[in-house]
């Protein structure tokens, strides 16, 4: 059974810092991995999706990488801003028609 | 924006009453999902649908039923609500194409007293 772990559960950094959020999964046979952002009281917003054949995806200040062999993905946020404060979740899809397995998320606080 | 609307957004009800949450989508997506989100448990799949009248159970389906009589609507019903079903419920759809990207609604906060 696929398990997805995100450690630490919470992180606080000063504004302007470059940071990396980690996501680990137990089964390397995945179809894709998706990163989400969730603001308090809101739904999940899709940030980046990496297919199993890809190594990374970029969107603005965000870069997500995937290393299937080690069961890891990282979300890199460049020049963090207070507006980046939110909970970031990763989710793994084992197969094309499989259901997603979610991590519990990392709550990020960026201090002005 | 995947055109997902959940209703109601907030509901308070009493133990033993029936509750129905509605998810409406405007883009003809085939796959729709209902999740619940609770502190310490994260997101857990309740039920999902892969077409009109085609539904299946997720990992926490006990106490819940679903129906999908039209492509655009996916209903989640709690036949007799319990306090353990107090949660935030999210509807999601799988986008078109082969990526399998998931898009979520804004959530429905349910409190069962």
Short description:
The complex is a heterodimer of chains A (112) and B (113). With 112 residues, chain A is an all-beta fold. Chain A has strands spanning 4-5, 10-14, 19-25, 32-38, 44-51, 56-59, 62-67, 72-77, 86-93, 101-102, 106-111.
Task: Walk me through the structure.
The complex is a heterodimer of chains A (112) and B (113). Chain A has strands at 4-5, 10-14, 19-25, 32-38, 44-51, 56-59, 62-67, 72-77, 86-93, 101-102, 106-111. With 112 residues, chain A is an all-beta fold. In chain A, the strands form 2 sheets. In chain A, strands 2, 4, 5, 9, 10 and 11 form a 6-stranded mixed β-sheet that branches. In chain A, strands 1-3-8-7-6 form a 5-stranded antiparallel β-sheet, with no helix packed on it. Chain A is globular. With 113 residues, chain B is mostly beta strands. Chain B has no helices and 11 strands. In chain B, strand 7 (64-70) and strand 8 (73-78) form a beta hairpin. The termini of chain B are far apart. Classes of the chains: A mainly beta (112), B mainly beta (113). At the A-B interface, strand 4, strand 5 and strand 9 of A face strand 5 and strand 10 of B.
- The number of helices of chain B is 0
Largest interface: A-B, 23 and 21 residues
Strand proportion of chain B, as a percent range, falls in over 45%
Structural shape of chain A = globular
Which percent band covers the strand fraction of chain A?
Answer: over 45%
Mean pLDDT figure of chain B: 94
Q: What does the main sheet of chain B amount to?
A: 7 strands, mixed
Overall pLDDT level of chain A:
95
Number of helices of chain A: 0
Whole-number radius of gyration of chain B? 13 Å
Instruction: Name the helicity range of chain B.
Output: under 10%
């Amino acid at each position: 059974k696929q398990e997805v772990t995100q450690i630490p559960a919470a992180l606080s950094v000063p504004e302007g810092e470059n940071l990396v959020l980690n996501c680990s999964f137990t089964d390397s046979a995945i179809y894709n991995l998706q990163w989400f952002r969730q603001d308090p009281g809101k739904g999940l917003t899709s940030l980046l999706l990496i297919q199993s054949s890809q190594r990374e995806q970029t969107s603005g200040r965000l870069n997500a990488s995937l290393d299937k062999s080690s069961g890891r993905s990282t979300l890199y946020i460049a020049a963090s801003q207070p507006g980046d404060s939110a909970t970031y979740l990763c989710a793994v899809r084992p197969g094309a028609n499989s259901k997603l397995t979610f991590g519990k998320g990392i709550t990020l606080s960026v201090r002005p | 924006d995947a055109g997902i609307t959940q209703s109601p957004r907030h509901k308070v009800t009493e133990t033993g009453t029936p509750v129905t949450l509605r998810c409406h989508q405007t883009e003809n997506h085939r796959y729709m999902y209902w999740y619940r989100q609770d502190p310490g448990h994260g997101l857990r799949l309740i039920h999902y649908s892969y077409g009109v009248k085609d539904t299946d159970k997720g990992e926490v389906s006990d106490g819940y039923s679903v129906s999908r009589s039209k492509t655009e609507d996916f209903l989640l019903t709690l036949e007799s609500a319990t306090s353990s079903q107090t949660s935030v419920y999210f509807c999601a759809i799988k986008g078109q194409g082969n990526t399998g990207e998931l898009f979520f609604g804004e959530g429905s906060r349910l409190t069962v007293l």
